Automatic annotation (TrEMBL):
ATP binds at S226, G227, G228, V229, D230, S231, T232. SUPFAM superfamilies: Adenine nucleotide alpha hydrolases-like, Class I glutamine amidotransferase-like, GMP synthetase C-terminal dimerisation domain. It comes from Vitis rotundifolia (Muscadine grape). It holds the Pfam family GMP_synt_C. It catalyses: XMP + L-glutamine + ATP + H2O = GMP + L-glutamate + AMP + diphosphate + 2 H(+). Gene3D superfamilies: 3.30.300.10, 3.40.50.880, HUPs. This is GMP synthase [glutamine-hydrolyzing]. Pathway: Purine metabolism; GMP biosynthesis; GMP from XMP (L-Gln route): step 1/1.
Amino acid sequence: LVLILDYGSQYTHLITRRIRSLSVFSLCISGTSSLKSIVDLKPRVIILSGGPHSVHSPNSPSFPDGFVDYVESNGVFVLGICYGLQLIVQRLGGAVRVGERQEYGRMEIEVVRACGLFGSNEVGHKQTVWMSHGEEAAELPEGFEVVARSQQGAVAAVENRERRFYGLQYHPEVTHSPEGMETLRYFLFDVCGVDAGWNMEDVLNEEIKLIKGMVAPDDHVICALSGGVDSTVAATLVHKAIGDRLHCVFVDNGLLRYKERERVMETFERDLHLPVTCVDATDQFLSKLKGVVDPEMKRKIIGKEFISSFDAFGQDLERKFGKKPVYLVQGTLYPDVIESCPPPGSGRTHSHTIKSHHNVGGLPKDMKLKLIEPLKLLFKDEVRELGRILNVPQAFLRRHPFPGPGLAVRVLGDVTEGNALDILRQVDEIFIQSIKDAGIYDSIWQAFAVFLPIRSVGVQGDQRTHSHVVALRAVTSQDGMTADWYNFEHKFLDDVARKICNSVRGVNRVVQDITSKPPSTIEWE
Ligand code: XMP
């Protein structure tokens, strides 16, 4: 295991992912975790991440007391990156000071001494790296050597081979450091002797073994499928472990996209052979949403109705099997459970930053279900890889995210008014199909249409019209937390707008949303 202690750098998750891409298992925990939680994980290598703090600030985060003794007496290798290097220098008896030169952005560094870190490079080898620091190592602790310097003469890399401490002042994990991956690879395999054995097949087998051991022969497990990648892969995995003791439910809340129910059910049943009960709760949801225009209110109502649908499903199972379901499968991913050291002033706490309304519904309180979360150590791309091994169709794995409250947050105002939902479904389908036909679906994080509760004047076939306006939104993003609007070619937009107005009755105007997140959010409500 390569353990990453997070000190709040925006690149920390990237380090974890880069290392995993070398087939080495890595985990990321808060940089202020207790010594016990570090020791319990039995890491072979510990990486101290970068971060926005200064080692001189009174509350700057650091590794726990006893950390140095522990790593030295257990032969653990330590690599500090940026702030991590400065922590090592400071805590082991050297000095960090505000540098005469601040180094931000692309920088050239040179290997100045034969060493472990750059063992595959000659002395004098130069490379471009990505720096981002205002302070620098001014005096090294005893036994440490400078092994690379920046073009301005600042310390770029240090090591103490005997004590197994290493440090890079720059960020090897970002693509702006083109040789950074090679440096990490060399460090892990040649310096630390780590094995590259981690792969998704093993993860899958481990998880299946775990679930088989956990679920008793007469236990029943439920899973709410949303039609998204995460819950589908989680359910497919659990089904492989316990077969038809898994009971999935897919709730049609009347807020799904064009033919979504049919398409999703077909994948579940025909391709994945998952035991799914499809509950048609359209009337239940829409009657509760009638007249509601406040976005938060809509979300709350939908959450509550989801809970009552799951509850009813659980009771059906209890009647059928004479025993309450014991477990609930959830497709929680690693980014939702990582705890990090938040940057100062960010307002984030050490705990999770998931928005509660992002979970589909939540759980009925009195069901007292225990959770099975087979994906909770994986990133989205790893879940897709797992899905591929589990034969989940590619087209399904590549689907854009779709929010739990569905089209309710894309029809502004009262969703039940007129044929808003129906118009939106048609517009959305034309937009998405055009994106697929143009071959750009995979370059976009998420694309959808929004129904606006206003009318504008138009002229169609010499007739004055007073019809609806729809907005098109497409964004690029890494994780949905920030996003940029997607820049379509004008010809594409022209074709789509024409097609929409020509084929969807009730729409005479199409606009495009060109705001990023922030200041907007991805969804309109
Ligand atoms: P926002 O609109 O907050 O969305 O920028 C970020 C990402 O989350 C999705 N989203 C949701 N997903 N339940 C979900 O399962 C929700 O209530 C929900 N609200 C937003 C949104 O589609 C985007 O991918």
